């Protein structure tokens, strides 16, 4: 486009010169005088503007005429002016800070994050990063920290407090009833077995034989022993104990309430027993002293990591678990106006501080880029950007000169 305009400007100068030469033979007539004056003025205007435009960048016709090739001669001044304009006018600190402060930066970042999260590239990046983090976790350094903290927490546990809480949980959750019912079910199951009868009979006969009595009681005991045998006595004891078990299983039976009250009383005494507390504390300290917690924790963490990597292998966890969590966090942040405002203020302050510290580098960057170009490259760049308008100056100079020449020649004819 610049080359075409430059050709047009050159042709305008050629036309004016050719027109001036062609009209000279007719200068004796009024029309000839007008054309001669017009083309002469157009030629002078075109040449003057050509000289002016050319003198900005180089010496016209290679002649080192004073005050020509202005750009190469004043390159340092031009660079200083450009740097000053960029630093103080176009990109000054105040304008940058004001522009940034008016931008909803946090909202823009969150919206961009929401959009990018659904892309396959982002999902793949999250998958790669997550797997790499899990695979490269320094478990050998983490395990001692976790183990020491576990041992510290366990060592500081108050056994008495734990026992009290355990007693409260057992009674409030009804675990005492569950334990009693479990024991009764086991007793009932045993009593219904055939061998239970003979076992009870054997125990009963041994107990009766061990009884030491004299006189009339001895006579009665012998008569009873002659009637009883292991089978009969076992059956009696079996029926008796079975009935007792059934009574204890019934919620409203007084014996059940007494047994539960006894269990609860024992739990309370156990929880407040200094001897029990001291024994458990010693056992706990001994366990901690002999426990290789570091290796235990390390093996467990390695096992968990291996399981995690197997679970993460197909990458589905990103869409199923990771992205919903991130989406939820973004939604919560977007809904919190106060948090958004604080984030914006933090970003603006950070960027403003960064600009203040590095603002001079903007001018330095401009200067370095300009200094890297030689004169010819710099002239070509400027001509590429503004050359078209400069060539129109030449065209306008020739046309304007032509019109002024017409006016001046007409006035000269009228006044002479």
TrEMBL record:
<dbReference type="InterPro" id="IPR007383">
    <property type="entry name" value="DUF445"/>
</dbReference>
<dbReference type="Pfam" id="PF04286">
    <property type="entry name" value="DUF445"/>
</dbReference>
<keyword id="KW-1133">Transmembrane helix</keyword>
<keyword id="KW-0812">Transmembrane</keyword>
<feature type="transmembrane region" description="Helical">
    <location>
        <begin position="395"/>
        <end position="415"/>
    </location>
</feature>
<protein>
    <submittedName>
        <fullName>DUF445 domain-containing protein</fullName>
    </submittedName>
</protein>
<keyword id="KW-0472">Membrane</keyword>
<feature type="transmembrane region" description="Helical">
    <location>
        <begin position="31"/>
        <end position="57"/>
    </location>
</feature>
